[in-house]
Amino acid sequence: MSATSSSTRDLHAVVSPHARVRRATRASWIGLGVAVALILVAPIAPYVVDRGTQGSLVTLFSLIVMATMWNLLAGYGGMLSIGQQAYIGIGAYALVYFADTLGLDPFMAVPLAVVVAGVLAYPISFLAFRLSGGYFAIGTWVIAIVIMLIVQQVPAFGGGIGQTFSAFSELTPGRRIAYVYWLSLAGVVLAVLVTYLIMRSRLGLGFTAIRDDAVAAGSLGVRVTRSKRFVFVVAAMGCGLAGAMITANTLRVQPDSIFSVNYSVFMIFIVVIGGLGSIEGPILGAVVFFALQQWLADLGSWYLLILGVIAILITLLLPRGLWGLISGDGRIRLFPVGYLLQPRPAGGTGAGAASPAAPSGT
Amino acid sequence: MQWINAIIQGILLGGLYALLAAGLSLMFGVMRIVNLAHGALAILAAYLGLVIVQATGISPFLALLAVVPIMAAVGYLLQWGVFNRALSMGGLSPLLAAFGLAVVVTQLLQLRFSADLQSLQVGSLSVASITITDQISIGVLPLITFVVGVVVILGLQIFLSRAPLGRAMRAASDDPQTVPLMGIDNRRVYALATAIALATVGIAGMFLGMRGNFNPTYGDAMLIFAFEAVIIGGLGSLWGTLAGGMVLGIAQTVGAQVNPSYGILIGNLVFLAILAFRPTGLMPKAVTT
């Protein structure tokens, strides 16, 4: 069987006539329904909740975007990065530069900032890919530090003090936060959708193979380095988007905080807690993390300490995270990115979702 | 003359970085674990020394006799409790566990000692120096640190090539499937390797604390400098790590001579240049796995 064929029809040709291949399941139809309902309901938030809540939701959305991108890198690409704050900072500074310094429309400046993050990530990937595993992790971190140190030296970017983001200053606060909220909602939907489409594509199938065994995947014709470079750039663009969302929300960029390694710490803890290697995990993890952040905020240092202990325990005891626990190690999939083989009943169509690993029965 | 002085100080600083990097290199060499908690553990050792010195009033050099075995015990327990299990799970688990550990150790130190800068007092030794010319003088403490770094690396090298346990470690690294057939328990070999690595981390942390200030967040920079020394020198070569540490030290002190705020940046840029143009490092091991 061709390891990289992506369409269900191709697979039908090669599996037994007694079985059929499905992608969607009952859970995924329910998932789609819930997602559509959320997307339809979410835009009315600025009319029903106060500004503070909208600001918090923007923070939650940026966490979901960052975690989704980190999972794309680590969960699928097998690349553990501690340097994603580089692209958060680049996105943030690019937004301020395009919107304030060049005077572009802020809504034009955000996609441009995302593109800048991707364009810079491409050459950086050649440097970072010289390292692998844990050394890749520290290497990405060093690159992020270098970018921060360079930004600090540029007077046009405000040096070490940073800049205020003032493109929205003519708007009333209520209108401004509503715009930022809608922008961030569009951003989070886009980030999850792009991840879903990548994972459902031929590339995604290749990634699942790389995740399970990079050498074997390479021998079957998966272009390992090219695929990794592609997600590295996509993840940088996603983090650039998150940086733009954060800046539009906080109205300030400052090198030490926007390039803080804490963003990577958050991404890693969110994905580990939620579940590495699934689309649902980072979303669930971000919600849990956000709730813990609100709940433990008064505890100061204790809060990261508790999260660290939880992350170690989950890594050692529950490697698929909370989503793995809920979904029975991947049996429930809200995002149908896999292929399910089902026995073909004697007459008519199958009733409901059968076991994902049902034997083909030849 | 200033430049020659900067280079000499850089070489001596490189000894500290090589001392820091030795444990990172050892753990990677034996278990393929990149211990992301390495820097945080070095700072933990410095605070351990601080507590002992403050409680007993002894010299930090004497406190080393307590800190090193304690850190070795910490390493043995960490390998049994965390890393062996993470290794058996494969994938990113060892890295994620080490990363979590780094955050936990840093936050614990933050809670106990706050972010105030601390240092280990060595009295007049901290300012003692050997004058070469009017403008060049060598600090006694940096020189001691450098010598200790060289001795630790030499010791590890001899241990790995000659001692039975060192040979078992190399065997466990080369072929972890066959070693148990020879009646050697990999997990025990790994635990001893981490114990030795953390003993060197203990020494590095103490000299770090004697040479300058530290606070809980310094672990990040220590991990990065150790990593840069390893990569600049070439993976798998302890002598390369020493050379890498010196190159990094020189880059930082010469960079700081140009402009005090450029030191770290130039060090990082030299590292990136090596990565771009000589990714195997200065002294690559003949056969790399």
Number of DSSP strands of chain B? 2
Number of separate strands of chain A: 4
- Largest beta sheet of chain B, briefly? 2 strands, antiparallel
How does the helix and strand content of chain A classify structurally?
mainly alpha
Task: Write down the Rg of chain A.
Answer: 22 Å
Gap from first CA to last CA of chain A:
16 Å
Helix and strand sequence of chain A? HEHHHHHHEHHHHEHHHHHE
How is the quaternary structure best described?
Answer: heterodimer
What's the rounded overall pLDDT mean of chain B? 91
Shape descriptor of chain A reads: globular
Which class of secondary structure composition applies to the elements of chain B? mainly alpha
Walk across the major sheet of chain A and give the strand order.
1-4
Catalogue the unreliable spans of chain B: none
Order of SSEs of chain B, N→C? Answer: HHHHEEHHHHHH
The N- to C-terminal Cα distance of chain B equals 43 Å
Average pLDDT, all residues of chain A: 84
What is the number of helical segments of chain A per DSSP (H or I, 4+ residues)? 16
Task: Describe the fold and architecture.
Chain A is mainly alpha-helical and 362 residues long. Chain A has a domain at 50-260. Chain A is built from 16 helices and four strands. Chain A has helices spanning 8-14, 26-41, 45-48, 51-76, 85-101, 106-128, 133-153, 173-200, 202-212, 214-219, 224-250, 255-258, 262-274, 280-296, 301-317, 321-326, and strands spanning 19-22, 163-164, 252-253, 340-343. In chain A, the strands form two sheets. Chain A has a two-stranded antiparallel sheet. Chain A has a two-stranded antiparallel sheet with strand order 2-3. In chain A, helix 4 (51-76) packs across helix 14 (280-296), helix 5 (85-101) packs across helix 11 and helix 13 packs across helix 14. Chain A is globular and about 65 Å long. Chain A starts with 7 loop residues before the first helix and ends in a 19-residue tail after the last strand. The model of chain A is unreliable at 1-6 and 348-362 (pLDDT under 50). By secondary structure, chain B is mainly α. Chain B has one domain (2-277): Orthogonal Bundle (ABC transporter involved in vitamin B12 uptake, BtuC). Chain B is 73% helix and 2% strand. Chain B has helices at 2-31, 38-56, 60-89, 93-113, 140-162, 164-174, 186-211, 218-233, 238-258, 263-277, and strands at 129-131, 137-139. A two-stranded antiparallel ribbon of chain B has the order 1-2. The radius of gyration of chain B is 19 Å and the shape is globular. The mean pLDDT of chain B is 91. At the A-B interface, helix 7, helix 13 and helix 15 of A face helix 3, helix 4, helix 8 and helix 10 of B.
